[in-house]
Amino acid sequence: MSEIVDDSQPIEKILLIRMLSTADVCTIGLPVVRYFQQQNTNAELHFLTFGDGAKLMKLAEPSVKVQVLPNEQWPDDFFLALEAFLALAEDIVGEAYSQIINLDTAFMPCFLARFLKDAHEPMSGNFLSLSVQQLFDQVQKQTLQADYVNSPQAFMDSTFTTMYKWHNQWWQYGETPDGGYPEFYLKKCCGLVVDKLATEISVIPDKRLLKAQKNNKVVGLCFEQSEDGYWYPYQVELKKSLEQLGYTVWVEQDSKADIKLLLKMLAASDLLVCKAAGPRWYAQAVNCPTLLISGASEPALLMPEFATDTVTPCLRHSGKTTAIGQADALGCNCDKAADLVESIESIFEHLTEEAQGVKNG
After folding, report:
1. Is the Cβ–Cβ distance between 220 and 214 less than 8 Å?
2. Which of 144, 168, 289, 359 could join 138 in a cystine, given CB atoms 3.0 to 4.6 angstroms apart?
């Protein structure tokens, strides 16, 4: 006798919001989506983001309905951004979600969440501390303070009861999570994910690099972004030195700013060398080890497999010099290319020994 399925009950729809950068979608949006999929097997999951974050989520989880800002833009102008997010709010209200969770910490997504909360939508997560009416009153009277708009500690309220931990330099206290910042945020601040963060993305490795990998180690160099504000200055020298030793080396520009191509190239690589930025997380998603050039950033936030020592911002290259021409007279404390080459060779020796131990074990 066949089972009778009741189709009269509406499908539960859940909206998860994480915008910011594509790397945030990879490290925070993706594991949350997968956790909600496990916990709500019959629900229809929607994910709100913008830009390449949408492309990454569609690649990783094709069954999730991805929504983006109108025209996929986040206007730089404050008032145009308000208009864009208000239009988005109207669309969201029309969807009749059973749950809406804002995981974002930026002002505009928190404004969106506050609008939805004030409209009595089933909103949880982060939102503005001011009501929409209070915000508009201050805008109209020109009393809205820039410090309020620019400081999450000032503008953000939350239904996550432990969100206050996010405002502290948590890596200086207690045990650092193995998953770095994403694990701290999702487990300790939001209390949303209890299992290991699932950030894996399945892609077909780049064929050209995969062919080269049969004979040489493949190393990727991604220095186009850095959270400490300045690029690694010796990329050309580092690439040349590695190629002279027989390595196949590619640089971030070779990916043509295509997130899917970058993931495919990382999937066919033996090591990524980068500063603190998105590529570290993309490498993790395709199981490529990372050597982080720490610079002035905090390695505990990214928890790479390997990292150089942290240093104070380089006076020559960080853009903090006070006069034109002064930089050339200052010393440079960036990691030298020769030292990185030595580190990379040591890393490959270590990985080879580790793999041999597993094989023999």
Report:
1. no
2. 144
Tokens of 39: 């916990």
Entry field: residues in the chain: 361
Asked if pLDDT for residue 329 goes beyond 60, the answer is no
Mark out the alpha helices in 78-224 (DSSP H runs). 78-95, 107-118, 132-141, 146-150, 152-155, 180-183, 207-213
- Please provide the DSSP assignment of 270-282 as one string: SEEEE-SSHHHHH
Residues 232-264: tens digit of each pLDDT: 999 999 999 999 999 999 999 999 989 999 999
Answer yes or no: are the C-beta atoms of 242 and 249 closer than 8 Å.
yes
For residue 309, the SS3 value is: coil
CA distance 331 to 326: 10
Angle at 303 between CA 298 and CA 309, to 5 degrees: 45
Q: Report phi then psi at 257, rounded to 5.
A: 60, 25
Nearest-angstrom CA–CA distance, 285 and 61: 13
Which 8-state DSSP code applies to residue 202? -
20: left (phi over 0), alpha (psi -120 to 50) or beta: left
Q: Quick one: pLDDT at residue 11?
A: 80
Rounded Cα gap, residues 240 and 348, in angstroms: 18
Cite the beta strand spans of 18-68 per DSSP E.
Answer: 44-49, 65-68
